[in-house]
Amino acid sequence: MADKKILHNIIDGRVQTSADGGMMDIVDPSTGEVYASAPNSSAADVNQAFTASAKAFEKWRWSTPSERQQALLKLADVIEDKAEELVAIECENTGKPRALTMSEEIPPMIDQIRFFAGAARVLEGRSQGEYMRGFTSSIRREPVGPVGQVAPWNYPMMMAVWKFAPALAAGCTVVLKPSDTTPASAFWMVEKMQEIFPAGVCNLVCGDRDTGAAMTAHPVPQLVSITGSTRAGMAVAKSAAEDLKRTHLELGGKAPVVVFNDADIDAAVEGITAAGYFNGGQDCTAATRLIVQDGIYDEFLAAMTESVARTRTGYDPADEDIAYGPINNANQIDHVSGLVSRAPEHARILAGGSRQDRAGYFYEPTLIADLRQDDELIQTEIFGPVLTAQRFSTEEEGLAFANGTEYGLASSVWTKNLDVAARMSARLDFGCVWLNTHIPLVAEMPHGGFKHSGYGKDLSMYGLEDYTRIKHVMQHHGFEG
Fold this sequence. Notes:
Layout: E1 5-6, E2 9-11, E3 14-16, E4 23-28, E5 33-39, H1 43-60, H2 65-81, H3 83-94, H4 98-104, H5 106-119, E6 129-132, E7 135-143, E8 147-150, H6 156-170, E9 174-177, H7 184-193, E10 202-204, H8 209-217, E11 223-227, H9 230-240, E12 246-250, E13 256-259, H10 265-277, E14 289-293, H11 297-309, H12 330-341, E15 348-351, E16 366-369, H13 376-379, E17 386-392, H14 395-403, E18 407-408, E19 410-414, H15 418-427, E20 432-435, E21 450-451, E22 454-455, H16 460-465, E23 468-476
Helix pairs in contact: 1-8, 2-5, 2-6, 3-7, 5-6, 10-11
């Protein structure tokens, strides 16, 4: 294909026009056709990137918070000024609706970069003091070192920001690997960063899971951060344990949405529809499991069915009413289709339930009712435009259903009763609990889960601190009072 785009690695400030591991095809999910190629980087390519990262760290670690802030602010300005260009790349990369990508992803990305630019200057520790007579103790907070980062395919450009912004703000250097299916927007951003940051501070290595495995096994990075599946996170943790490398794991989710009898049905239906089908449900915090109290179960599902019927999928950059685009890749749409096709006999498919008969990886917005707690659709992360519904009677039963999976990332509770809201938010075993809403995120608040959803925090000062290490300095001065 003569006009096929060619992407590259970026190592030590330079675009690498060849890679030791050869090239891999990149597919446009809205057509199912190859539109680009990118390096399938080998262990040698990864070694080259970490060698550059380690060399750059010896200077970048001593950069002042002000210098790091100014560099990140310049990057935010570039993204803001060239947002149309970046969004066009992201939409071709993912098939996402252009208007939604521009309005719902670009502003928070810019805000998050600017947040970490400011956060670089306000890291605090305990005040120094005499905890033993004749000695003064103080705490140094230092960058952890060069880091390896693996970003997912569901939000390629935003998740890249979640990775590199706190790391760079903390004084670390980065080797970033985007998903093998969506490297284009990360390539654009990291290429722009070479005009702002010193060579080797942020490197890009494209490739598949073997490339990611080579990054985790490499001796240079002091921390490896991945956003991905629980299986991938477990593999990273196991490999990193070989040399006691730190890990930062933001993994799968299966977010429960607990709707009580007194909930505002109209508001809940509107909010849950948006939070369940945004980005085609390809979001680890998506409102996927509807757990509805029996007093409103039928009424609520009737309203949800109507709402789902108004939800449209497709790919037309001029159509601003399209809610979501295609499933990202062939493997993922097979996964979604397989789960729905195996729905148990007691389940009712109220809407959707099948792949669209067209080119690309499009799946209908789907709602499946009357599921039971041990059903595969309840226990397995779908990561697609499929919402499930269960009926519960008591608060205890609703809580048990919500907590009864291996995931613990995000959840929401819909009720007008403040006591119920307080009890549920305290007892839900999830890193985030939303009350009468679902999915809003702000840069100041942490994002991260429990159980098989991983550990470590993105966003917030907690996210920045994850890229630092603590050192105790003790000085003998002899004065004992």
